[in-house]
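My current task is to audit a protein record that another person submitted. Thanks in advance; the entry in question is below:
***
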Amino acid sequence: MATKAGNGNVAHRPADMQILIDETGDGPAMLTVCGDIDIVSAPILAACLHQATHHPGPGVVVDRLDVPFLGCPALAVLIAAADELGRDHRALTVAADEAHRRLLHRTRIDATIGCYSTVTDAFRAARTHTPPASSPTSSPPSPI
């Protein structure tokens, strides 16, 4: 289900996930995701990210600070969006908790997607197209 807010924002709500898209202004498009991103909800995230990549701003920020579960399909969706934005020399950045930043680091996805602990830092990096940090966490990844 999608509802259009008066200020250009769009909200998408499957059963246990909500995505708010803010494409207002000349800055990066902003997706705020709440709830689990799993095999059922990943296609909705993909559609929202696809919409956001067409925003003329300098990139896309995904706020995942309120995402308890992030499944493998969500990682594939993020990589695809980062690739699409990268072709236009634009950035995909995410704000995520430490556990999710560590996951992105261990899977080396953080080499493509900027991972930050705050929305402000993610927004600033997308706006200035700062290259992704090599290590967004305080501890190095452990051997697998």
User: Anything to note?
Assistant: Residues 1-6, 134-144 have pLDDT under 50 and may be disordered.
